[in-house]
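Bug #77: duplicate submission created two jobs. Keeping one. Sequence:
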Amino acid sequence: MSGDLVDDPEGYEEEGIEAFNRMADAMQGLQSRLDALDQGLGSKVGRAEQAATKAETAAASARQAAERLEATSRQEARSAASWAVLGAVAGLLAAGGAGYWLGHASGQENGLAEGYRAALDQNAAANWANTPTGRLAQAFDRAGSLDQLARCNGQGWTVSVQNGRRVCYPSIGQGKSADGWYLP
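Kept job's structure:
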């Protein structure tokens, strides 16, 4: 059997080199897919970059293995090339799957957290609307006066600044004073 391998050592070496060239092309294709995944994940860029770094490390290791394999005996080139290609493909598939899984899980966590915050805000607004102050604001709104109070645009009202904040006062004449309210 070993005699068969020695018959054409040049052919086996070329086959091994071709296999590793295909592996390098596959790695470059995976890198392109990882780059596209990185762009699609937006806020998950850090995790995708880690996955890409792992893939680049795996690619560099595979290239080093290819160089070492070329230096080994020509009799074992075909077998070693087959195992290296299989291992690199499995590693690349694992790295791609891990990158996808990390990005997907992180996106889901962020979405749930954002939805929970929105629900808390809506709960707080609904609870406030049921307080006496909230009911009073609703009554002003139904009467059409809430905008007028908030913007200080009623007849005879003026806006001044006190302590860096805008205050609305009714105009009552000189020498007289009146209470006002802070504007939003």
